[in-house]
Description:
Distance between the termini: 60 Å
Mean pLDDT: 86
Structural class: alpha+beta
Radius of gyration: 26 Å
Amino acid sequence: MSQEASDGVIAPRQFRDVLGHFPTGVAVITSVGDDGQPIGMAVGSFTSVSLDPPLVAFLPDRGSSTFPAIRAAGRFCVNVLAGGQEHICRTFAMRGADRFSAVDWRPAPHTGSPIIDGAVAWIDCELGDVHEAGDHDIVIGRVQGLEVQTPTLPLLFFQGGYGTFAPRSLVMASRGRPSEAVRVAEAARDDLERLADTVGLEVRVLAREEDGLAIVATAGNAGGADPVGAILPFYPPFGGTIAAWGSPELRAEWYDSFPAELSAEQRAEFDVDLDRVRERGWTLTFRSEAATEAETLVEAMAEYGRTPSLERRLFEAGKQMSGLDDPDLLDESTAGQVRTITAPVIGANGPLLHLTLYGFPADPSLDFVERARDVLVAASRTLSERFGGAID
């Protein structure tokens, strides 16, 4: 709604209301005072300034009681708060609070300023120029070191409240009423638990959902972040079993979703691989540096969400994984490199679920791998018959 300034005078309330429609990140600026004690303040006005040289800035209120001590120290660390750290922001925004009493931290490598545990990132700085700007100062920091500490979503301040970034890719697989895949996975719960117990491995159940490739259930989870609800990308080489048993339209979507252009030759090579997967009834992946990096990133997505940074890194890892691994290469010499084995559950109208065995030991025998594969394939066929389909 439009509001005109009266005689060129902007009312403070109107200024806040209008600028409040622009979300800002939340950071805590920390340093160490002359007495050796940690000091810090919350700001919603941190920004990058220059790449060469690397400079950042924040804008403290000129009435701040903490900034003079930071200015005297001549150095500071910017802590970009995570979405779950609203309580830390509120603590550091309160006057007179014992701000570090319930905060775990460690000294930054260059300045010794506190790095707050769980912050998304830290930027260690020497204090540069300070410019007066109305009722605030503009403080320039000369960056000495920086690092992403926790690759999760940042805390945002928007229209007077706190929240976080919510890209479409972070929508859970089940919204409102459970999807068909979620309902089928729940109906197969006993079979999944039995499968995990029999092979001694984790079973992850994946399905194609509107937003990508969803982990809709697990059994025998060995610990760590619960991956259920994570939405992963659906493009080569991820989700190959889904493309193999899917319709021609779904296979085309798999290709078209790849962030770079796939040539006709590349699509033809994938078509051959997918047809072989479907003929065999199962597939596998072998360990590699790129596969290990991809798995690490998938685990991070399960814990922190499918952030744009993690998705870019996963795409780069995926580019290093050329084509789909060939199960015909499985023998005594390669069994120790098996990372996953996957088989589908087919319903009356096509593929419903894809069961993936995770957590193979460091050097499994060929007998162990083949037994796990055979038990998985038997379970996939049993479930397919129960839900009105068949592995062709």
